[in-house]
Fold this sequence. Notes:
Blueprint: E1 6-7, H1 15-26, H2 44-53, E2 55-60, E3 66-75, E4 78-86, H3 95-109, E5 114-120, H4 124-132, E6 136-141, E7 151-157
Parallel strand pairs: 4-5
Antiparallel strand pairs: 1-2, 2-3, 3-4, 5-7, 6-7
Helix pairs in contact: 1-2
Amino acid sequence: xxxxxxxxxxxxxxxxxxxxxxxxxxxxxxxxxxxxxxxxxxxxxxxxxxxxxxxxxxxxxxxxxxxxxxxxxxxxxxxxxxxxxxxxxxxxxxxxxxxxxxxxxxxxxxxxxxxxxxxxxxxxxxxxxxxxxxxxxxxxxxxxxxxxxxxxxxxxxx
Length: 158
């Protein structure tokens, strides 16, 4: 039914599908977060470049269509996770946990000591999800031009 979680799949080229997945999964936050998500300005070319510069962790269906993703990049001794998305119809099936597991394996392979990520202050359901996945809050930060926290930093030690 589905392919396994893949890290940096060599045969992947469906950046239109990946962008559509991200837009679909991030749509719920459009009216809730300030400032708007950086995804709003991303193009297929931007995603392709991101996948070349970072690690793309991907979950595809049997046709090869992206159904879940996560980008990961080394920052000092941590692996920073971003743009995590799981298709609505697959939520609650352990896909997010599998993506995080693949990121943890990658981090260990790189000799890193932690996973890190940020989520917006307003997205309390994301805070709960990441807490269930073993992350703890480490800081609150503000985007440029804001005088109050707009994001929460989470970390999970390995």
